[in-house]
Amino acid sequence: AAGTGEFEAGISKNGQTREHALLAFTLGVKQLIVGVNKMDSSEPPYSEARYEEIKKEVSSYIKKIGYNPIAVSFVPISGWHGDNMLEPSTNMPWFKGWKVERKEGNAEGKTLIEALDAILPPSRPTDKPLRLPLQDVYKIGGIGTVPVGRVETGVLKPGMVVVFAPANITTEVKSVEMHHEALPEAVPGDNVGFNVKNVSVKELRRG
User: Fold this and answer.
1) N or C: which end of the chain has fewer CB atoms below 10 A?
2) Residues 126-171: tens digit of each pLDDT
3) Rounded CA separation 190/155 (Å)
4) Which residues does the UniProt record annotate as the domain Translation elongation factor EFTu-like (predicted)?
């Protein structure tokens, strides 16, 4: 936030800007967009100097965490007035646009929506063996035992034979559901529940 004192609070020792950037990197978020918001309430409004000051400081911090600043788009915006959100703003004629350089291909644009569109979708490791850490195991009347979790690698389909570790139980998957809809297959990133044959809830646990 570009407002007086707001950016300083966010980038301070226990500030949220710092915390969110570090969390994102720690959780494996590889691509970053820095939206410098509230440009309408900088001093003076829509100040290029304020934007450059923030960009310099945030670049230096994210570099320390492990991000490469030249692969990060910086966009001065005002969510309240809509500046540089969907269309280039006339209030910041000094802003010539954002640019990112990365080995998968460079990108450039003027707005936040373009920066979002330039994010590269992650590759889904469907070719690897199935790995699905269990978040929970439910017993559902009339259906039976339903383990729930997120597919990390591989593919989960009805009819597959799966092994639960560390109990080393082998069983067949009867059905796979996401948001109460049956799926022909679940891929990495999907949070699913799946029904298994002849396994009691007591035999399985989260983890």
Assistant:
1) C
2) 999 999 999 999 999 888 999 999 999 999 999 999 999 988 999 9
3) 10
4) 144-207
CATH topology of domain 134-196: Elongation Factor Tu (Ef-tu); domain 3 (2.40.30)
For CA atoms 14, 15, 20, 21, the dihedral sign is: negative
With contact defined as beta carbons under 8 Å apart, do 185 and 157 qualify? yes
Fold equal for 6-118 and 134-196: no
Nearest to 76 by CA among 43, 29, 42, 118: 42
Cα 16-20-24 angle, rounded to 5 deg: 175
Instruction: Enumerate residues 6+ apart whose C-beta is below 8 A from 119.
Output: 31, 33
Average pLDDT over every residue of 96-116: 97
Instruction: State the pTM of this model.
Output: 0.71
Q: In the chain, what are the domain boundaries? A: 6-118, 134-196
Question: Residues 20, 22, 27, 28: what is their CA dihedral angle, to the nearest 10 degrees?
Answer: 120
In angstroms, the Cα distances linking 113 to 76, 98, 106, 107, 173 are 12, 12, 16, 13, 41
The SS3 assignment for 66 reads: coil
Nearest CA among 143, 205, 157, 207 for reference residue 185: 157
